[in-house]
Amino acid sequence: MTTKKTKSQSKKSAESKIQTHTAEGLKTPVAEITLEQQIIGATFLGKVRNYFSDLHVFAVKLEATLALGDTIRIKGHTTDLTQKVEHMQVDHLNVQSASPGEAAAIQAADQVRFGDAVYRV
């Protein structure tokens, strides 16, 4: 005996799959990037996941490659910072570049906040 799903049950199932997908951090949904955070023509790298004020370092789970020497722009509600990537770590090891899916720690020139968008410009 099989049971049929109603439209509302199917919709809830699809929504839970979307939430699981984004919870894994594979890609940031476009809806989560506000208009004030968007930069036309720049490569979206991810959102600030954590900021360590004592070290002036922020963590970001990358959605595109990033290398030392690249110029990044961090944009948020009260943040608008452009800087070169001079120091970067993955798993507490200094690296020259990081790939999509890796959590990178990057030294910031100024304070950034959780949820700020990070772009390569």
Task: Summarize, please.
With 121 residues, this protein is mainly beta.
What's the helix and strand layout?
Blueprint: H1 7-23, E1 43-52, E2 57-61, E3 66-67, E4 71-75, E5 80-84, E6 88-90, E7 93-94, E8 97-98, E9 103-107, E10 117-120
Antiparallel strand pairs: 1-2, 1-10, 2-9, 3-8, 4-5, 4-10, 6-7, 6-9
Could you state the CATH homologous superfamily? Translation factors
H/E series: HEEEEEEEEEE
Tally the structural domains.
Answer: 1
Count every helix, treating DSSP H or I runs of 4 or more residues as helices. Answer: 1
Helix content: 10-25%
Which keywords apply here?
two-stranded antiparallel sheet, 121 residues, 1 helix, mainly beta, Elongation Factor Tu (Ef-tu), domain 3, eight-stranded antiparallel β-sheet
Task: Characterise this structure.
- This protein is mainly beta and 121 residues long.
- The protein has a single domain (34-120), classed as Translation factors (Elongation Factor Tu (Ef-tu), domain 3, Beta Barrel), CATH 2.40.30.
- Helix content is 14%, strand content 36%.
- It contains 1 helix and 10 strands.
- Strand 4 and strand 5 (80-84) form a beta hairpin.
- It starts with 6 loop residues before the first helix and ends with a strand.
- 19% of the residues are buried.
- Mean pLDDT is 81; it is low at 10-24.
